[in-house]
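A student in our group prepared the protein record below, which I am reviewing. Here is the record exactly as it was handed to me.
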Amino acid sequence: MYSGLLIILLPLIVGYLIPLKNRSRLHLVNQLLSWMVYVILFIMGISLAFLDNLSANLLLIFKYAAVCFLCIFVMNYAALWLLERRRPWKTQHKQEKLPSRVHMALESLKLCGVVIVGFALGLTQWHWLTFASQASEIALLFLLALVGLQLRNSSMTLRQIILNRRGMMVALVVAVSALIGGAIAALLLGLPLKTGLALASGYGWYSLSGIVLTDSFGPVIGSAAFFNDLARELCAIMLIPTLVRSSRSTALGLCGATSMDFTLPVLQRSGGLDMVPPAVVHGFVLSLIAPVLMAFFSA
């Protein structure tokens, strides 16, 4: 158990310990991270094609993803609504013109296309494709090191994280309520509790959760994690402009780990500049704990 946990955490820690001052190197890290996500999801698609009883397993993937998404989404929504009732987040901001939500949704769906292309190639059953699992393990270690580098050099200090109470509160509520939703999903699906908790620990970071859980539980659970977290981001993009008027905490919390990057422009234009610091802190905290929790529950 602990050796598996160490193998996943070690590259993350090593990457986090490396400071980068050069802007061009930071840009290269971000580019490499983006490329590696596509590479590993492509390999994940190949692994899917080598599953026994393929048609039955595809139905199982979407069943797991749908149940997990509903359980986690409902628990997050209920907990965030309760937080907003007890500690209202008030503002005088008026919404700006929003970027195209359809365009942003299509950007997310590109990753689905990469998985599908890998799956189509895997159906050829070429012999050299059987090494996909070993390749994914090496690529995963490299990706985790890049994630550590990115987190270390995200310009967020410990002081900034601690001082932003709203971002921390929302992150804590999301983290705990998602795990409760994952436990309920595991119960409904007849999965081990640790598997349900691992599925809930992605917090919307679909490009990482699918990769880590594929390596630990196989392509069925890994693919379910990917689609579960992708659905979360797509729903957040569509719901933010409406939710921010009545429950800013809910609008922020449903974004999960993506609130510091992909969904940040929508949050800023819908909720104003005062939404940005909590969004960055919220996303940073969830991005920091997601790989740790996934590694712990997967070990």
User: Anything to note?
Assistant: The chain has a mean pLDDT of 82. The two ends are 5 Å apart (CA to CA).
